């Protein structure tokens, strides 16, 4: 009975949602919570920007994606997605145990272990995305996409919000171990579900070359790079900005946790409805224009210095949670349409690898710009880019959809 429920479309979506939440707890901890902790301890913004080196395995996972996908999809029989996720989950928990012992005071060893954890998590993600595309019928792809984006925001809210509250109240080690425990619990539904079995031989050999030979995939890669520049670069220093305007770690945890979770989930669901009604291209355009407006107002607030703190927090939430959720539902809908079901793990990895490369480069550069030009200039540059490049995104989305 339990196995039957987990193999139903709803069971598959819920199990996948658990994996995406777990992965995003790590992302929220590393990219949102950790910069705030480091800033509270007086670390310079350009050094905090080094946190984005943790994205390196996500950017490079395409190097080993084909090997993982070929192992995951043997010539016949059941897939091996669960074995991959189980091993990577164990390595993640062991890594987090080491992180709890090291602590943020020892910055370079901590960074090295977090990069190793990201290697394990990014490898599991190859299997997770491939499993989503191959097991969900086309009519259920929207639910899978909702699990992906909604799970990402839920996990990010836990990793950036609840984690900071736990750090403030119980200390670094206890907070990290609590995060590890949550990740183990979230993995269990997927690990307990039955593996899909191919009815015949799998004749297609997954490869990176096959992916890059497809015109649709090449157009999708360009779209992913441009869109991530416009949506993510302007919010990568949001945690340090809130610290500088006077919020403490617990307050930021509450803002990112409860506020980010509520706004992110609502906008993810709204984005799914809008994609169904308007199409992904128009929703991406709408999100870019809204992002430009929000970042422009943040630039004005940072330059004036007299805007009420609550207004700044509201703008930060709208930009980093609400508008981001709206836009990335549409972008991932494009990814699902582009990926070939015969090697979905590779295709998704390639598209998300472009996302990670651009995010990492932007995060490193964002720290430098914010440190040397100030937050007002940082937000203004990001706002202008988002508005001016919106027509380019519309053109690229059209080409990615129509490419043969």
**Helix-residue proportion:** over 70%
- Output the CATH topology: Growth Hormone, Chain: A
Profile the largest sheet.
Answer: 2 strands, antiparallel
* Overall spatial form: globular
| Sequence of secondary-structure elements | HHHHHEHHHHEHHHHHHHHH
Pfam families: MFS_1
GO molecular function: transmembrane transporter activity
Main location: membrane
Family: Belongs to the major facilitator superfamily.
How does this structure look, described?
The protein is mainly alpha-helical and 404 residues long. It has a single domain (2-195, 208-402), classed as MFS general substrate transporter like domains (Growth Hormone, Chain: A, Up-down Bundle). Helix content is 82%, strand content 1%. The protein contains 18 helices and 2 strands. Strands 1-2 form a two-stranded antiparallel sheet. Helix 5 packs antiparallel against helix 16 (344-373), helix 11 (215-232) runs antiparallel to helix 15 and helix 13 (249-278) packs antiparallel against helix 14. The protein is globular, with a radius of gyration of 20 Å. The termini are far apart. The model has no long low-confidence stretch (mean pLDDT 80). Keywords: Membrane, Transmembrane, Transmembrane helix, Transport. The chain crosses the membrane at residues 12-38, 44-64, 84-102, 108-128, 149-170, 176-201, 221-243, 249-271, 283-305, 311-333, 345-369, 375-397.
In short:
α8 runs antiparallel to α9, α8 packs antiparallel against α15 and α14 packs antiparallel against α18. The longest helix has 32 residues. The chain is 82% helix and 1% strand.
């Amino acid at each position: 009975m339990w196995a039957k429920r987990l193999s139903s479309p709803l069971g598959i979506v819920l199990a996948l949602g658990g994996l995406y939440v777990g992965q995003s707890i790590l992302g929220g901890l590393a990219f949102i919570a950790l910069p705030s902790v480091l800033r509270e301890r007086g670390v310079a913004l350009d050094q905090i920007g080094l946190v984005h080196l943790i994205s390196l395995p996500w950017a490079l996972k395409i190097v080993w994606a084909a090997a993982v996908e070929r192992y995951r999809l043997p010539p016949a029989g059941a897939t091996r997605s669960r074995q991959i996720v189980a091993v990577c989950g164990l390595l993640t928990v062991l890594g987090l145990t080491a992180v709890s012992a090291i602590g943020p005071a020892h910055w370079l060893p901590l960074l090295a272990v977090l990069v190793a954890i990201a290697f394990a998590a990014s490898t599991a993600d190859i299997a997770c995305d491939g499993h989503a595309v191959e097991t969900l019928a086309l009519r259920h792809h929207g639910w899978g996409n909702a699990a992906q984006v909604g799970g990402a925001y839920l996990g990010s809210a836990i990793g950036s919000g609840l984690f900071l509250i736990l750090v403030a109240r119980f200390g670094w080690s206890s907070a990290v171990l609590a995060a590890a425990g949550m990740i183990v619990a979230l993995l269990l539904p997927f690990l307990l579900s039955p593996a899909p079995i191919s009815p015949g031989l799998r004749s297609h050999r997954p490869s990176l070359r096959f992916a890059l030979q497809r015109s649709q995939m090449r157009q999708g890669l360009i779209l992913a790079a441009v869109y991530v520049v416009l949506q993510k670069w302007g919010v990568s220093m949001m945690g340090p900005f809130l610290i500088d305007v006077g919020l403490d770690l617990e307050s930021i945890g509450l803002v990112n946790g409860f506020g980010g979770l509520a706004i992110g989930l609502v906008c993810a669901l709204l984005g799914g409805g809008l994609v169904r009604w308007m199409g992904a291209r128009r929703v991406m355009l709408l999100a870019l224009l809204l992002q430009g407006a929000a970042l422009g107002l943040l630039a004005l607030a940072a330059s004036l210095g007299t805007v009420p703190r609550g207004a700044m927090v509201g703008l930060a939430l709208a930009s980093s949670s609400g508008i981001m959720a709206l836009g990335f539902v549409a972008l991932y809908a494009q990814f699902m349409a582009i990926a070939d079901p015969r090697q979905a793990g590779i295709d998704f990895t390639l598209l998300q690898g472009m996302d990670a490369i651009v995010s990492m480069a932007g995060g490193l550069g964002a720290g430098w710009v914010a440190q040397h030009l100030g937050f007002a200039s940082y937000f203004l540059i990001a706002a202008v880019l988002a508005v001016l490049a919106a027509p380019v995104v519309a053109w690229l989305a059209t080409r990615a959809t129509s490419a043969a």
